Amino acid sequence: MNLVSYYYFVEAAKDLHITNTAKRLFISQQNLSNHIQKLEQYYGVELFNRKPKLSLTYAGEKLLEAAERILGEDANVINQLAEISEKGVGVLRVGIPAYRAQVCLPLILPIFYQKWPNIKIQLTETQSANMEEMVAEGLLDVFIGIKNADDSALEVTPLLNDHTYLMASDTLLHKYYGKRADRLKQEALNGTDLKAFSELPYMLVKLPNRLRKTTDECFNAAGYKPNVFIESSNTELLISLYPKDFAAFFVTEMRLPLLEDIMTNSSCFPLMSGGDLIMHRLVIAHRAEKYLTQYVKDFIKISIEVLQEIEISRQKARGKAGKRV
């Protein structure tokens, strides 16, 4: 069976929308459908339920698991043979959440491609928990994110500590706190447990987002349920609404450089719990017993060096984190 058919099937299973998958892969819908039909004919089963909407059959779920393993092993073989041939050609499968990629990859990839110009990078941009599983299963070479489980199958290197911030505009603070707003900002400059901000409305990302879990814990510790203006699983939607001064918003430290355009006349207050600043440790991880090509090793090394430089710069700047942006 052609590996391309497996690849197209796996991609279609991600979207469960033939039109969207075909557009994303720059192929025709007919071409994509033909590959899926070939697999169905080869195995003698239906892989998708077509109505009322596209979904995987039980057979499709089983083939998806097998196809991902097959494609993963194929990538591993390509990498090993490429290194043996010393042509410097191969595939690097990197998992990283999209907004972290915006910050990290423009710093990492120029250095990496100076040494490895012929390496193709396949990006997976999803939640850290999903990518952690994919690395353990051999579907990714490395992931950059927040480690969830205590998994001995992974070799993990810390990169930096990512703090969590409450972001609120002056307009919003003065609307709800009046003359108290300026004093409130000064008191929260170096950290807040949210008790003093109970009157604000909030824009929140939906569970199971890690940031939402963290902020829910803070609200519980502060002893109140937040006034939720809007919830959404789309963080970019919340960011687009922030300049309208509807509500306060929570962000990770890594997002702050990406939000400079919308943070005029705003303040950022680091969140605290039990008197300590809340932070999550960003790591880079790979499967401990997996064969690593030299370019994978170099990518890991470069990532560590770049992110640790960012951490050093952050440590110098954190004293100013609560000041007006």
From TrEMBL:
Transmembrane segments: none annotated. Residues 1-57 form the HTH lysR-type domain. One of its GO terms (molecular function) is DNA-binding transcription factor activity. Gene3D superfamilies: 3.40.190.290, Winged helix-like DNA-binding domain superfamily/Winged helix DNA-binding domain (1.10.10.10). One of its GO terms (cellular component) is cytosol. Belongs to the LysR transcriptional regulatory family. This is DNA-binding transcriptional regulator, LysR family.
